[in-house]
């Protein structure tokens, strides 16, 4: 029984996740702004073995992050929806864009990161921890 399911805008790519997310946060970095086309990206972190693509196959785009790690963006070549991110520095984790989840009512971010790059008013009124860059120890936001 999946924990949750999701897919792209046109339905060509669908997925399901069997385990609980290990982290959720709002990322305000420039890469997330540009790749999502939004002020920030709400990211849901899952263990790679817990994610199964049940329909279609996403295309991939790779780029280097500020950290030097290789980031892999996975998206639908038909509708352009970005569904997943991979980070060479964290190969056991896959990031799911929260907007692609069919019922995202469980999504409650634990922090805002890269707030120093946030667009005006993007984090006003938030009550979760906010960091100007990556937190000193981001592992505190991950559950096992």
From TrEMBL:
One Pfam entry for this protein is: GFA
Record flagged with keyword Flavoprotein: no
Span of domain CENP-V/GFA: 4-132
The protein's superkingdom reads Bacteria
State the UniProt keywords alphabetically. Lyase, Metal-binding, Zinc
Does Hydrolase show up as a keyword for this record? Answer: no
- Which Gene3D superfamilies does this chain map to? glutathione-dependent formaldehyde- activating enzyme (gfa) (3.90.1590.10)
Q: Name one GO molecular function term.
A: metal ion binding
The family classification in the record reads: Belongs to the Gfa family.
Q: What is this protein called?
A: CENP-V/GFA domain-containing protein
């Amino acid at each position: 029984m999946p924990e949750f399911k999701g897919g792209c805008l046109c339905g060509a790519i669908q997925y399901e996740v069997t385990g609980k997310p290990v982290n959720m946060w709002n990322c305000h970095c420039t890469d997330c702004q540009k790749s999502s086309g939004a002020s920030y990206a709400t990211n849901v972190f899952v263990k790679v073995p817990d994610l199964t693509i049940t329909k279609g196959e996403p295309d991939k785009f790779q780029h280097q992050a500020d950290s030097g790690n290789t980031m892999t963006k996975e998206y639908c070549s038909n509708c352009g929806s970005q569904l997943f991110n991979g980070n060479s520095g964290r190969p056991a984790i896959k990031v799911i864009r929260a907007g692609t989840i069919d019922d995202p009512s469980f999504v409650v971010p634990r922090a805002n990161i890269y707030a120093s790059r946030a667009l005006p008013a993007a984090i006003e009124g938030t009550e979760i921890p906010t960091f100007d860059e990556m937190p000193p120890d981001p592992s505190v936001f991950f559950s096992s």
